[in-house]
Every structure is written in structure tokens, then in C-alpha cells.
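Prompt: For my understanding, could you write out one protein's sequence and C-alpha cells?
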Amino acid sequence: MNAPQLDALVASASQGVEFDGLSVAADSEEYRVEIPGERLETDEAGLRAFAEENPWYVSNWYYWTRTVGSEGARYAFLRWIEDAGRPVGERYEALSTGVSRTWGQLRVSATIGEDGKRRYALGHVDDAESASLDTYSDPLAARELVKLDDRGRYRPLSTAPTLPTGWEYPNLDGEDLVRTVDFIYPATVENWHREREGELDVTHFREAAERQSGIYEIVSQLSVEELEAAAETCCVDSQCLKRRQWDEDEETDLDVPRGDGEFPCREPCSLFVTAARKFVTLGREEMRSYEFELTPTEKEQIEEIIDAVAEGRTDEIREADLNEGANRYRARYLRARRMPDGELSGTSTYPED
């Protein structure tokens, strides 16, 4: 607590102060101050002395009401980081050594600074124990920082669980922390806050599909079974860190896990709509019967390859691990044996052509 903070508290007493267990009121020259377990009626000098003995209540009040501003998404997010439902003393003790929360693949940490100011650190959860990281201070730099994953591939979906590692923002104030998070996971803090306030405006799939035009109009033709397969493909935790809150429509839930993410997904995203368009065209093909000659192991190998590609595991399979069906040499051998002319088991896809 510093002198300006204490002066601000005394000046605010006539309007009344009620915040995080601190209560201060003034009537003419008389002051009433209260914290959990203690209550005092005194003059201004007594109020100042009481504050000097309990400085964390004053600096806490000042930080949240004057530095941060006591409303809105930023306020709620910063309070959530330090679990502000706890008593002030307990919270300050925890902040002295640092408290952390996980936001998607981000690790957000808060510590107590001079005169009760909070300082925040931001990085990848997997880098919590890393000693050599590239450090940043400009929130805007995060835009470029997260464009590519660790393998150098473009990330078309900001909330895909492919956030690159190797960087940190070690010292941010609350405003810059929220700005940085917003560059990495756009609108997640705002939508999280709206959900907590019961104000999240959800747009379900049918409504979103009706808005599409041009080549995307056909997404409205997606059946509920195809829609559920699409949601299982694109919207589960392994593909997106948001928690899906939209369904087919307001009355029809999708039988697909919504995800466990901290922040909600309020509508089908552009990537989902693009994928849905492709799924519609694939679903309009007529079924045909083909006859292939494969050994049981070859059939299982094809299934293992599809599974490995779908789960993004192909880079994890070691070249020397020939027990893996999706092993590169196993796949090349299968192709040499069963696709010598480029078609599986010599079976033409369009035999009538």
C-alpha cells in the first residue's frame, strides 16, 4: 500500500467502500471500517492507522477498482486467474509465490508486485519448466508468434491444440496480458465472460447454414448424421480447444462430446463450414461395391493407416518400428504389393470408363 492508495480510500469513504471483505463508511468526521473479524468506529487518523495495519486490503481494493476497473471481461478474467473468491490474506500469500491457470494451451501466472499491483507471465503449458525461452513484451508480436506450429506448418485454426512452444511473456500488466491472450485465442476471454454472465449468444448449425451463400449454400443439405460425424471430426478436444455450445438447432442436441475446454464455441467456425461443404459433396456420391483381395493383416494395416492419419500420429511413428501398420516402410511395401498400377488390389474405381 502506498500513500496515494490510502488517500483514495479515505476520500472514497463518504461514498462507501464495499470490496473483498473491506467495508469503509464515513459520516461527517466519523469513520466505520470493517474487515473479516475486525470492526472499528474511529476518526480519520484511526482509519489511516487501521489501514496501515492491514495494507493488503487497501492495495487490493485500489488495484481492482482503480487500476483494472471493476467490471467487464478483463476484470473477470484477471480475477479468475488468482481465484479471487478466496479471502484477501490467503490470496496475497499465494500470489507471493505465484499462482497459475491453464487457458487452452497457455499457462497464465500471476504474482504480487509493488503496492499490490499484479504482474502476469504467459507461455505455453509445456514450457513451464523450460529455462531457455524467447522472451517478448509486445502483445502484438503474439500474432506472428502463433501462426506456425512447432513443425513450421500454418495454423488455420487459432484454437487448434498446436500452439508452438519456446516463447514467453515474463512480465505483463493486466491490460497487456488480456490483449496478448486475445491475439493468441481471439474472443475467447470475451465469450467466456458472456457465458458466465448468461449472455452468450449461440448460433446453431441450421441458422449458420441458412446464412451461407454461393458455393457454401449446400452445407444446409448436411443431414444430422453427417453433421454429427463432422462435429466429431472437427470439434472434439483433439482438434479444437473450445467447448462446443452450438447444436443442430435449439431443440436438437448433437450426440457428440462438447469438449472440456475452458472457453466456449458459440457458432460453427469458417473452417467447420468449409469442411462441411466438402463432407456434403462426399456424401452425395452413390455407394458402390468393390471386391479386393487382401490378407487380414493388410486389411488391418489400412485401418491403422487411416487411424494414424486421422489422429495426426504419422510423424510419431518411428521408421524402424515395423510393427506399426502406418510405418512408412510398411505402407510402401503394401503399395508395392497391392497397388502396382496405382489402384488398390488392381480394382478400378470406375470400371465402366
The chain has a mean pLDDT of 94.
